[in-house]
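User: Can you recover a sequence for this backbone? Please restate the input before giving your answer.

Assistant: Of course. Working from this structure:
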């Protein structure tokens, strides 16, 4: 191995270390603010004492029962969506590939709305319904992109069509539902982290942790498949298997978050697009995308709670606004023009 190769690898490792450290520092600052501010403000020193078992009963209740579940859910959901977006964008080689734009979130959301409005289900059964909807969309996308020559292009086009179809189905269900149920479904469809119990956090976290091995395997296989199907096959990696595992993993991560907090828009699109230029060298950066997704969603939730004094809006409103601006910027850059 030449000295130049070793120097490049060392430079890549240093850059990755700096990026990860910066993201972790941003996460720590966001978490501190999230746990400190609110109707009952807590000073940083009192927050530190409360986290380590000190503080009075009221401070402990506010931190551990009101603010911490919401913060942890934002971090877990943001990380899951960031990882799902990174996997899909790396698989398809397109910065616009994300679960929401490909219809995966829409399929999970339409199935969940059907469960809420028609079947009257909730909790774990709602998660099962959302997962089933995402699986149906994923199966259709895999079928549409089965040809190796233009599979990515066909899959993106099919995903856009499915996204519009799921919107139509959801709108029809909303129009036919009772006003009270439709209002509840609309709040869920917007995406919200309010009133998050710990059992919801534990469920989402458990599913995400179970999906971590698949994420690691996909992150290792995807760079090989990007060298071409024949090269990947010569190295013992089947491109079709990688595509199947990657899409299913993205569906699992998207569906479980959609079931408990609703379809949070644009986090899966923005997080990988921010991670790639930070890492450089065409890196996939699934872990970095997950960390950036967690920071983005937690910061967006802070904006949703406190940007307008006296008014708290669903976090999906904020992510939608941020994502729309980001998408316009992406389309205006060279990356967008080269799509």
């Amino acid at each position: 191995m030449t000295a130049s190769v070793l120097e490049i690898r060392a430079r890549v490792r240093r850059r990755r270390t700096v990026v990860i450290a910066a993201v972790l520092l941003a996460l720590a600052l966001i978490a501190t603010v999230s746990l400190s501010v609110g109707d009952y403000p807590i000073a940083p020193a009192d927050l530190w004492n409360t986290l380590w078992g000190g503080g009075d009963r009221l401070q402990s209740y506010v931190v551990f029962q009101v603010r911490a579940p919401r913060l942890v859910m934002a971090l877990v959901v943001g990380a899951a969506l960031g990882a799902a977006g990174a996997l899909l964008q790396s698989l398809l080689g397109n910065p616009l590939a994300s679960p929401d734009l490909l219809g995966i979130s829409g399929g999970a959301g339409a199935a969940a709305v059907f469960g809420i409005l028609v079947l009257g289900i909730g909790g774990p059964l709602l998660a099962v319904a959302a997962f089933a909807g995402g699986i149906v969309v994923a199966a259709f996308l895999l079928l549409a992109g089965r040809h190796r020559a233009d599979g990515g292009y066909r899959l993106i086009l099919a995903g856009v069509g499915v996204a519009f179809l799921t919107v139509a189905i959801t709108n029809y269900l909303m129009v036919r539902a009772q006003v009270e149920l439709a209002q509840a479904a609309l709040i869920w469809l917007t995406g919200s982290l309010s009133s998050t119990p710990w059992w919801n956090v534990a469920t989402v976290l458990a599913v995400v942790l179970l999906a971590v091995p698949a994420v690691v395997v996909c992150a290792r296989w995807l760079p090989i498949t990007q060298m071409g199907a024949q090269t990947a096959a010569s190295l013992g990696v089947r491109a079709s298997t990688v595509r199947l595992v990657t899409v299913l993993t993205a569906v699992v991560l998207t569906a479980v978050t959609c079931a408990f907090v609703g379809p949070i828009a644009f986090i899966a699109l923005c997080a990988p697009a921010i991670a790639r230029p930070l890492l450089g060298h065409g890196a996939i950066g699934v872990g970095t995308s997950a960390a950036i997704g967690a920071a983005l969603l937690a910061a967006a939730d802070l904006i949703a709670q406190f940007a307008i004094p006296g008014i708290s809006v669903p976090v999906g409103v904020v992510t939608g606004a941020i994502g729309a601006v980001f998408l316009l910027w992406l389309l205006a850059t060279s990356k967008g023009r080269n799509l």
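That completes the design. The longest helix spans residues 57-92.
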